[in-house]
Design a protein that fits this description.
Blueprint lengths: L7 E3 H6 L1 H11 L1 E6 L2 E7 L4 H5 L3 H14 L1 H8 L1
Parallel strand pairs: 1-2
Antiparallel strand pairs: 2-3
Length: 80
């Protein structure tokens, strides 16, 4: 996942100004909340939640091809 550093906000700032998080999400699409200077939480627009949860057919196909190539020997043994 690529994280835009402009969308990062500390948990302390979130506690003091949650509307800043919602504004970031409205403008950039996501907000990353840092806890102890480490990315801990991801806030996304609710309408985009389904899009990120489902892999596209192209993604599934490319992953399948990669797994088949990596495990070719095992599949050949199992096919016997």
């Amino acid at each position: 996942m690529i994280i835009d550093t402009n969308t990062m906000i500390s948990i302390t700032e979130v506690n003091q100004n949650f509307s800043k998080v919602t504004k970031l999400v409205d403008e950039k699409g996501t907000a990353v909340i840092l806890k102890n200077n480490v990315p801990r939480y991801l806030v996304i627009d609710f309408s985009k939640a389904d899009e990120s949860a489902v892999a596209s057919d192209e993604d599934v196909l490319s992953i399948s091809k990669r797994l088949l190539a990596q495990n070719k020997e095992a599949y050949e043994v199992l096919a016997k």
